[in-house]
Every structure is written in structure tokens, then in C-alpha cells.
């Protein structure tokens, strides 16, 4: 029997540097609703960016992050596929422990120009989003749980990694598929038949394709992303979170449509 696809839009703060990703997530949610005919559940309400340190940002975001975690727990408990627009990567502190509870053998595909694998003491920037994957794998206690193992992670597209992350990747032999690699074949080998949950930070893409906070040269094309999604669709698909899509190239700029991005994700977004 086909699984029900459920949609969620996160609208709270999550360590934001600016005010562009919350409306970006909303734009994705609106377009997903138009395509699917299903209105998303909305978690949180917009708040202005404050640009504080990770601890202050986490304390401020915790109530809404906990609500997001409950939402995914509910979706997965009903056997649903989760499609979520999550504004910032820090929302993964809440979502991934829920994935781990319901799909303990899942493979987490982390599309990002960064690793986000620093615990607070190793962070160079002090940015909450840079700790987003480290919490769910138990490298630090965010207050939102953990449950993932490092051998469940597959990194795709990273090209701006800190020394701590590089050492972690080497020490634990975490698959790291670079933009210049044979993406489809390497990804298929790394998934190794497991169920798949996807985190997409839009800065994995080549700068200029969609608006993002960070811009790192040498990224994936939309065709690359679609090829990866076709491989993922060959497996049991648990869900996807779409993060770091900003709705404009600059503050007060004209809105940018997420359509091209969602078209590339079509293999995963089709009603199942």
C-alpha cells in the first residue's frame, strides 16, 4: 500500500543570520501545496533574526524545535513520508532524532557545502547551523536527543569543511561524495539498499542557482541534484527536509520562485 505524503513548513527562528529563509520555506510550502493539493502543517511563527551565539539561539528556538520534532514523530508513527521546508539547517537538531527513533537503520543523505559536524567546542564560527548534524549523532547534547550513528551518514557536495570535520570523516570513514565524483554511482553504493532520509541545504548547489546565505563555488547543478534524487527514489524513501532556500537574493529584493529547485526534486516529491 502506498504511503501517505505529509507536508510541513517550519516558520520559527533557528539561528538565522537574516530574515530570508523563513519566507523561503513558506514559498516552498505554497508551491508544494499547489502541486499536491495538500496544505502543509505550519510549525512556529516568523521572528526576526538576532545573530546571537549558538547557545542563545538554541535556547530561543527550543520550544518551536520541540514542536517540529513532535510533528515528525507523528508523521512517522502513522507511516507517512515527510516532506518539510525547514528554513535553516539547525532544524535538523529536531528532525533527525525523530528519524532515528522510527527508522533506526536509515541512511541520512546530507547534501550541503558544509559538514555541520562540529560540536560547540570545535566550532570556528559559533553558528548554530554548523552544529546541526553533530547533535543528532551524539557529538554534543542539544536537548533534542540523538540516536543516529556516524555510519548512517553519507555526505554529498561538501567543499568547505573544518579541520575537526575532516578528521572525523577520515577517522570514521564517513562517505564523502564530492561534486566532481560520479554522483549517481557513488551515492548508490553508499546507500547500500538502506531506507533514505534526505537533508538538502541549498548551498550544496553552485552559487547563483537559488538564493542562499552561504555561497561556495564548485557546487552541484540542478541536473546533478535530479540525478541523485533518481538514485534515492530507487530505495525506500523516508522523507526530505529542504533548508536554506532564501526567497530573495537580498533583503527587500523581488521574490525568487522555488519551482526550478522543486522540479529537480521531482523524483522524491511525486505522490507515492
Which labels suit this protein?
272 residues; 8 helices; single chain; 8 strands; 8-stranded parallel β-sheet; Arginase, Chain A; alpha/beta
Mean pLDDT: 96
Radius of gyration: 17 Å
Distance between the termini: 9 Å
What is the β-strand count?
Answer: 8
CATH topology: Arginase, Chain A
**Percentage of residues in helical conformation:** 25-40%
The class by helix and strand makeup works out as: alpha/beta
Strand content: 5-15%
Q: What multimeric state do the chains show?
A: single chain
- The CATH superfamily label reads Ureohydrolase domain
CATH structural architecture: 3-Layer(aba) Sandwich
Shape: globular
Structural description of this entry:
- The protein has one domain: Arginase, Chain A.
- 33% of the residues lie in helices and 15% in strands.
- The chain is built from 8 helices and 8 strands.
- The chain has helices at residues 21-36, 54-77, 92-102, 163-172, 183-191, 222-232, 259-264, 266-269, and strands spanning 5-10, 41-43, 81-87, 107-111, 153-156, 176-177, 196-201, 237-243.
- It has an 8-stranded parallel sheet, with helices on both faces.
- The longest helix is centred in the N-terminal third of the chain and has 24 residues, at 54-77.
Amino acid at each position: 500500500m502506498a504511503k501517505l505524503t505529509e507536508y510541513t513548513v517550519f516558520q520559527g527562528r533557528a539561528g538565522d543570520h537574516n530574515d530570508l529563509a523563513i519566507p523561503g520555506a513558506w514559498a516552498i510550502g505554497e508551491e508544494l501545496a499547489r502541486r499536491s493539493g495538500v496544505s502543509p502543517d505550519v510549525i512556529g511563527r516568523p521572528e526576526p533574526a538576532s545573530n546571537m551565539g549558538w547557545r542563545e539561539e538554541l535556547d530561543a528556538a527550543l520550544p518551536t524545535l520541540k514542536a517540529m520534532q513532535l510533528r515528525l514523530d507523528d508523521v512517522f508513527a502513522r507511516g507517512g513520508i515527510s516532506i518539510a521546508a525547514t528554513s535553516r539547517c539547525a532544524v535538523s537538531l529536531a528532525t533527525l532524532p525523530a528519524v532515528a527513533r522510527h527508522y533506526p537503520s536509515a541512511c541520512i543523505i546530507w547534501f550541503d557545502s558544509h559538514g555541520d559536524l562540529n560540536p560547540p567546542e570545535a566550532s570556528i564560527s559559533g553558528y548554530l547551523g554548523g552544529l546541526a548534524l553533530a547533535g543528532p549523532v551524539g557529538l554534543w547534547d542539544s536537548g533534542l536527543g540523538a540516536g543516529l550513528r556516524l555510519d548512517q551518514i553519507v555526505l554529498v557536495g561538501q567543499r568547505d569543511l573544518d579541520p575537526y570535520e575532516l578528521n572525523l570523516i577520515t577517522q570514521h570513514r564517513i562517505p564523502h561524495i564530492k561534486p566532481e565524483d560520479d554522483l549517481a554511482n557513488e551515492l548508490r553504493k553508499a546507500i547500500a539498499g538502506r531506507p533514505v532520509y534526505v537533508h538538502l541545504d541549498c548551498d550544496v548547489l553552485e552559487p547563483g542557482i537559488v538564493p542562499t546565505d552561504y555561497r561556495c563555488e564548485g557546487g552541484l547543478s540542478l541536473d546533478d541534484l535530479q540525478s541523485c534524487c533518481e538514485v534515492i527514489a530507487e530505495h525506500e524513501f523516508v522523507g526530505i527536509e529542504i533548508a536554506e532556500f532564501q526567497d530573495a537574493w537580498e533583503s527587500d529584493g523581488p521574490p525568487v520562485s522555488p519551482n526550478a529547485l522543486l522540479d529537480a526534486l521531482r523524483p522524491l516529491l511525486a505522490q507515492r
